[in-house]
Amino acid sequence: MRITNNSLQEEVAARETLERRLCELRTELERMQAENAAEWGKRERLETEKLNLERENKKLRAECADLQERIERKGGRR
Q1: From which residue to which does any coiled coil extend (predicted)?
Q2: What is the band of 73 on the pLDDT scale with cuts at 50, 70, 90?
Q3: Mapped to the 3 state alphabet, what secondary structure does 29-78 carry?
């Protein structure tokens, strides 16, 4: 009976240890999922900003080329 009681106590202690570890791992997983979601949001914002800057750059290059053409035409008229 004494051996069975010790064995049962060891199993209970091992189970409690595993449950604590499982709780710690779940907490860590939740933290990492939240961190991952934040990083994805940041990445998407940066990607959108990059696309907007590329569009603006393209627009400014076109304006620059247009102004360059105008300058060349005015210079040719003289």
Answers
A1: 15-77
A2: very high
A3: HHHHHHHHHHHHHHHHHHHHHHHHHHHHHHHHHHHHHHHHHHHHHHHHHC
